[in-house]
Design goal:
This protein is an all-alpha fold. The chain has helices at residues 9-42, 52-70, 73-87, 97-115.
Length: 119
């Protein structure tokens, strides 16, 4: 066993695992809230000039990167799909209802992937 000043390799690994578990839990909580924000933003997609599309894009991008970093591969893949779908839409232009429905569906797919990680 290492002294308090120099933890053993096992102690370092245990501490890293604990920290990773904390980060994963925070990611799940934050992402749950971000999904709710995206769900609410979908309603504003029909309005030209609405910031909703940019907000969804920003959140999807963040979920993609953080999810991949923390090993939430399915969540990251769903968020990336959403990100690409939204990024293809020209900024400032109102979304057609078919695209808004695709975005809504992609958000629900993301929510379903996240739900598999909730306790």
């Amino acid at each position: 066993m290492g002294s308090p000043l120099s933890p053993s390799p096992e102690e370092k690994i245990a501490a890293a695992r604990t920290r990773l578990a904390e980060l994963a839990e925070k990611f799940i909580e934050r992402t749950r809230g971000e999904i709710e924000t995206m769900r609410q933003a979908v309603g504003a997609l029909a309005s030209p000039g609405s910031p909703a599309l940019g907000e969804i894009l920003h959140l999807a991008h963040r979920i993609t990167g953080t999810g991949a970093t923390l090993g939430f591969d399915a969540v990251s893949e769903r968020a990336r799909h959403l990100e690409l779908l939204v990024a293809a839409q020209p900024p400032g232009v109102a979304c057609e209802s078919a695209l808004a429905e695709q975005i809504r569906s992609a958000i629900e797919d993301l929510a379903a992937a996240l739900a598999k990680h909730q306790g």
